[in-house]
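Structure tokens please, single chain.
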Amino acid sequence: MKWATMATLKRSILTISLTALFLLLGDSCVVFRTVNGIQDAFVEESDIGLAAGAMPSLIKVEEGVLAANPKNQNNIVQTAQLYVTYANAFIQGPAQDLDAQHFEEKHAADLRAKALYVRAFKLLGPALDRRAPGIVELWETGTLQSPDAPDPAQRGMPKGGPALLARFAPKDLPLLYWSAASILAAYAVDPLDLKEASIVGLAKALLDRAIFLGPAWNDGSLQELAISVYASFPAELGGDQAIALAAYKKGLEITKGQSASLYVTYAGTICVTNDDYPAFKSALDAALAINPDTNPKTRLATTIAQTNARRMLAHAGDYFLQVPDQAPGTGSSN
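Here you go.
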């Protein structure tokens, strides 16, 4: 394996929001609720560029709705998820195809994506605090429990953390997911940002609480995010390959093996971390074998995931020291 653990997280984070957004969007986006047919037209789109061009308009409409009722949790989550997914799928994702000669352009895309991730959490953080007062500040400034604390739930958490997490109920699953995703995505872009680093533990805690409340929520979206976190984090931050692999197996069970982004996430995290090129290729081939037209409601998500899969196969030399039939280092650095 060539790259550090945080680089693995950065690559894998590119797929975290695809399934979640494109399954939730119809129920959440005000444009989709009010204009009949737009939901199907968007999620069933096969042209990624066309979808990318349409999403900023959706964002601005949602911002207008949020401005009229700025403390409404549903509106907050709706707007934040659009920020995260637009940055993830249409800004940062395409930039991964750029080679080293286009470093400045790639870096600019990363910074722009990070700004949207941060903007998302600026909305979501206060919403978390309204459900569990003081939770964000506690993780920023609280004293961590000893890793050998008698209660496993408190290990690595600030004192009082478990009690605050217990305030979240199944109705808060979208808030928990998008809060965790926005923090992790921003941290993956810039692990040296002390502000983001101070709350990355909160992201993991929110994810764990969400999985406890609804492990199969939103067609396996939580399991997919768990793969990225547990496979990419070092052990001192709570990383655990066994948990990541269990999340992958659970995701396969939930999706019946029909989620292209699940395979891509597995390939980009567990397979890369374990320096397992055969499993990497097998997973990406499985992603590419899925027919996007089988489920029109996930056509756009599948198309984007398959684009990522093709990129990763083409640049496999960037992930592994030795790739059969490909010279080491072939492809651009990611």
